[in-house]
Amino acid sequence: MSRRPAQESEKSSLPKTDIILPMSRRAGEDWMALIVSRTKSHEFRKVRYPPTLRRIWFYETAPISAIRYICDVGSPVVRPPKHNLPPASSSAPSRGRRNFLPEDGSTGNSDYNAYHPDYAGYDYAYPILSCTKLAVPVDLAQMKDTFGIKGAPRGMVFVPDAMREAVELQEQEKVW
Questions:
Q1: How far apart (Å, rounded) are the C-alpha atoms in residues 153 and 149?
Q2: Could you check whether the bond before residue 63 is cis, i.e. omega within 30 degrees of 0?
Q3: Domain architecture of the chain: domains with CATH
Q4: What is the CB neighbour count within 10 angstroms for residue 14?
Q5: Residue 83 — pLDDT band, cuts 50, 70, 90?
Q6: Average per-residue pLDDT in the chain?
Q7: Nearest-5° Cα angle at 64, 40 to 150
Q8: Is residue 93 over pLDDT 90?
Q9: Beta bridge partners of 127
Q10: Separation CA 107–CA 28 (nearest Å)
Q11: Among 5, 71, 121, 122, which is 20 to 30 Å from 146 by CA?
Q12: Per DSSP, which regions of 86-142 are E strands?
């Protein structure tokens, strides 16, 4: 790919439907593997992304340091602050619990519904609709040198037009 790096000052001609988000890796936590295996059905985030969002390009942090997967996502489920909830009927089968997400065994759904402390502030649950594996991952050096991204993503970054054009989704491997 011999494209010149994208400049931040250039105006995008494409709608802002694709973002890059970091996916951290820690011992015993491989969140991307859970998405790929369909064990995790929602991506939990602390912020609401633009309503035009359709795809998340997951940048997997070190030691991978590359984008290997792109997921189509739906509109987020928004969990209200716990203190803003009206009292639940004690006669309800849920015994006061609100089910914002299906209790289908997906990683995180039950804890999200229960306001588990590990999910404090993670009030936006983006349903993952599909998962695509890139035939050739986009590594950090290529992100910088070819596509003008200044460093490893630490938060939301819009996918540069040149990157969206270079990675032809229909030519990638549909995982599910």
A1: 8
A2: yes
A3: 18-78+122-174 (2.30.130)
A4: 12
A5: confident
A6: 89
A7: 105
A8: no
A9: 42
A10: 14
A11: 71
A12: 124-139
